[in-house]
Structures are given as C-alpha cells and as structure tokens.
Amino acid sequence: MTINKDSHNLILSNLIDGIVITDNNKRIISCNNSYLKMIGYNLEEIKGTSYLDLVDSPFKNSEALSLEAPVIKSYESKHIKKNGEKIHFHVRCMAINEVTEGQNGYVYNLQDITAYKDREKEAQEYAEKIKQFTKHLTQAHDQLLEAKIAAEVANKAKSMFLASMSHEIRSPLSSIIGFSEIMYEDDTLPKEEIKDMSNVILKSGRNLLELLNEILDLSKIEAGKIVIERREFDLEDVILHIINLLQIKANEKHISLELEYDPKLPESIVTDETRLRQIFMNLMSNAIKFTSQGYVKLRCKLSEDANFAEFSVIDTGIGISADKIKTIFEPFSQAEASTTRKYGGTGLGLTITEKLVTLLGGKIWVESEVGKGTVFNFTLPLTSLPVEETQEKEDSIDSLIKSAPVKTVKLRKDRKILIADDDSEFRLILSKPLTDAGYTVMSASNGKEALNLFKQEELDFILMDINMPEMDGIEVTKEIRLQSGGSSIPIIACTGSAMGEELEKFVEAGFDDYIIKPVDRNELLDIIAKFIG
Question: How far is Cα 25 from Cα 32, in angstroms, rounded to an integer?
C-alpha cells in the first residue's frame, strides 16, 4: 500500500518542522509551508537556488557535507531570513536515492530552536553573572575577614598602647603628687631633701610634657598639619651638639658614644633642622636606652651618587626579632610588650621618626639581630625639594608670627607686664621669674579684667591666655587693637594648642607672637626681651 501524492503533499505542508528537499548539488527542489513561513520566502523565490545560500556563514561548512543514503546526520545551523534576521535550527539531514527521476538528493528536517537557544544564552549569561557575583562576594568576604583581623590587631595594639600610656602617665604623676604631699605636710624636711624631691617633680613633669608632645606630633603628622621649614644650616654642628647632649646618658650606662663622619659631606645642607634634630634624638636615645654594654655609633656618609646623606645609628643592644621588624614603625607598638615594662616608652617615637624622614624626602629601614644589636638607617636628600602648596600655607602661618617686625614701645624704668589668665596657679608661676627679672607684674583672671586694666594702666607687654571666662583672649586682643587704633603694645598668646589653624586665628586677631604651655621660663624671658628688653 502506498500514500498517494496529494496525501503526501498534505502531510508535508502541515508539519510543524521545516522540510527542504534538494538535489545532489544542494539546489532546492521543494520546501514545505512551515519552512517558507520561517524564513519569509515563497517557493518561487528560492526554488532552483543553492540551499547553502540560505545558511549563515559560520555554519556553511557543516551544511556542505556530502552523505550516502541511507545515512542521517544531525547538527545545528543558522539560516538567514528574507528580512536579514537569523533563525537557529536543529537539522537532520538524510541522503536519499531517486529524489527526482534518476537523481539522488537530500531531505532536510529543520526544527526551530531559536527560542530555546535564546533562553540557553540568557541562562549562560545569568550563570556568568552568578559566577561573577559569587566571586565578588568571596572577595568581599575575604576583604572583610582581612579587615576584621586588621581591626583586631589594631585594637590589641591600641589596648597595649593605652595600658602603656596609663603607666607612662601614672608613674610621673605618682611622683609629682606623692612628693608634693610630703613637702606640703612636713615642715621639718631638710633643705637637701626638699631639693631632691623638687628635682624628681621637675623631671616627672618634663617626662609628661615629652609624652604629650609625642602624641601631639603624631596627631599633627597624621592630620597633615606638620610644619616643615627648610633652611640652610651646618650639619656637622647639629650632629656634634646632639652627641654632646646624649653623652651624659651614655656615660651613666657605661657605654661609648661614637661618631663616624664622612668629610665628603657638604658643610651645610637645606632641610628642616628642628625635625632632623628630632629624628637623631629619637633614634640615638632609643639606641642608648636599649643598650646595656658596648657602644652606640652614629655613622654619617655621602651616598655614591652624591645626592643623599646616609645616616646609620648602630648599637650593640638587645636587638629586634625578625617577625617584629615589619611592625616596628607602626603606631602604638613596641617590639615586645615586655620591652615597655622594662624600658618604658609608648612606642610612638619610631612612628614619628619614620613619618618625619618621609616628610623630609628620605627613607628609613632597620636591620637587627636579637642579642647582637640594631642598625637604623635613613637617607636625606641633599637637593632642595618642592614644598607642597598645603605645606606652604602651614609654613606661612608660623612665619607670619615669627617674622613679624618687632614693635617698638616707649620704655619706662618701671615696665609693666599684664598676665591675663583664669588659672591662678599659672599666673603665680609666670609672676615669679618676671618679678625676679625686675618687671612689675599685674594680673587679670578673665578677659574683661584684662581689657579694663589695659584702659587704666600704661602697660608695656601683655601675656594673654586664649580660653578665659567673660571674654576670651582673641576677643580681648581684637578689642584692644580696635580701641587703641592698632596699639603697638606687644600681645603674646599663651596657648596649650600649637595646631596650624589655631595659630592662624592668633595672626588675624592681632597677636604678635605665641608661647606654648607649659611655659619654659627661659623661653618666656627671651620672648619678652625680644619686644621690650
């Protein structure tokens, strides 16, 4: 039994899949309606043309294969529709005999899988997005874990620092309070004992001041407020002065203090002399502190290219373990917790030193071996460095005050100095050296009293506290300058703050200079002599 031709054609025309029949040279003989609808052509337009002309270029090779009946081959392909769009097919190609009378050919069954392929592509893209998201999530997790570990390390370091800080503050305070109470309560103490106790109180106070200065230095450096003043000075003189200062400490510990100085170094260099002194003092004081026998040596030489001065502070002290060297310059840390207990210190000195060396354009590194000693090396450029714009602004604040022309006043034999401060103890501390120096001292406990005394008395000099009740020092100074038409009387700010933004306010208010609390008596007398003799 055979199917008649009409039935055969009816079946082909109603199939969902496309059917294409070609001769052996792949010229189209017939197509069903489904294929024609899919590609947008009618039979007359493509009949007799090459089937391969409808195939997208990347798939032509797979479609051009030759088969022998009854072989069937399956593959994927893309055809180009009449409107230029592409349609994705799953193709089953079968070689058949007698397609037309006496000629073999091919029958193509084409299943439209475009929608499936689009979904597959979307799924792949979505899978890739999930992969990337997972990757980023993993990275974020790793970063959070690292941050957590870093935070824990930082918190541990800060806890150690606070414990050390508490010790460093409480120890001198105990001496100050303890000896002060003994001296206050016992009127029968011999003069020599009183002198010894006073010396301990003075030393303890200076230790507290040094600690405070270290903390302020670090905070200013990290806030970008440090003042760098590049000036020309004699390098050898600075180094010899520091060696002489530290010789007493070295002698007390029975260790030798040595200097090795390269004569090729230039006689004078241009950098911040004060900060360089601070670097030398920090490194060499540390070396002496951690050395109980042997020597501490400062080696100074010219680099091979003659562009840098190279310095090494060498000691035969306790040394630093290899695992601690990498954290030696971090804030709030010392090489070992036991180091703080045995030798004291806050662990801020080396942090400040490293940052100062960087600010001066140099580099610092350390070499050490436990039990044998340590070498701190740092370099300093011998060529002038460009000063950053922000730094220039910071420098200008200090220079505006320090380089202001000294105001001249009409001197009288009885020179009057006004101390305006709400702290009675501070007024008493300043009054004693000024009275001993022959000045007449007057006092005001607030801003209004200071302003009234200025109006009533012929004053020669004013020491003005910044933070006072009634009127603060800035308000009083502005009012004095306003009422007297820019009076030439020197007014010096007494402040506990040395931050740049504060100093700028002093300039604007009309102060002639400033002095930082606690006041050194020699510095006080020098600044007064500078203005009124």
Answer: 19
CA distance 394 to 403: 14
Backbone angles phi, psi at 177, to 5 degrees: -70, -45
Measured CA angle at 488 (ends 484, 489), to 5 deg: 95
One DSSP character per residue, 70-83 reads T-EEEEEEEEE-TT
Position with higher pLDDT, 116 vs 219: 116
Distance (Å, rounded) from C-alpha 98 to C-alpha 20? 15
- Would you give the distance in Å from CA 160 to the centre of its chain? 22
* Residues forming a β-bridge with 72: 94
DSSP alpha helix (H) spans, 186-234: 191-222
Q: What is the pLDDT of residues 28-76, one digit of tens each?
A: 999 999 999 999 999 999 999 999 999 999 999 888 888 877 788 999 9
**What single DSSP character describes residue 385?**
-
Coil vs helix vs strand at 441: strand
d(C-alpha 140, C-alpha 323), whole Å: 28
Alpha carbon distances (Å) from 264 to 298, 300, 303 = 16, 10, 10
The answer to whether residues 274 and 314 touch, using CB atoms and an 8 Å cutoff, is no
Chain segment 428-483, per-residue pLDDT in tens: 888 988 998 889 999 999 999 999 999 999 899 999 998 888 899 999 999 998 88
Closest CA to 292 of 261, 317, 267: 317
Q: Among 52, 54, 32, 27, which residue's Cα sits nearest to residue 42? A: 32
Q: Whose CA is closest to 313, among 374, 357, 370?
A: 374
User: Which is it for strands 440-444 and 18-23: parallel, antiparallel or unpaired?
Assistant: unpaired
The pTM assigned to this predicted structure is 0.50
* 31, 20 contact by CB (below 8 A): yes
